[in-house]
Amino acid sequence: MFGFHLDYFICCVISVSGVLIMASSYRRSSQSFANYIVGSGLVVLAALLFFLTDDRALNDYEGGLDANEQAVLFSTGSLTALLLHKGFVALKRRLELF
Question: In this prediction, what percent of the chain has a pLDDT beyond 70?
Fold first, then answer.
């Protein structure tokens, strides 16, 4: 029941995480190239995971996502990726203090 929806959500989280890593490394000079490569790799990995693991040629009346479901899943996935990114950055800063 949740297979396609869950796959879409997870791949949105992975790809948006990659975009956030690339965007946050833009202003920093240290390790910005490595972060850009990791972020780009996550975006590519999410696309490969989504399209190569199963047949994704579905329309919205045969088990695919309609526009409302897609918008909600992408928004929720983006918010999840943002919260994860902020959490990891806060944890990294916290550990650097010790």
Answer: 87
Largest CA distance in the chain: 55
How many domains is the chain partitioned into structurally? 1
Cα separation of 16 and 74, whole Å? 9
Q: Is the entire prediction scored with pTM above 0.85?
A: no
Print the domain residue range for 80.
3-97
User: What angle, 0 to 180 degrees and rounded to 10, lies between the N-to-C axes of helices 3-25 and 67-97?
Assistant: 50
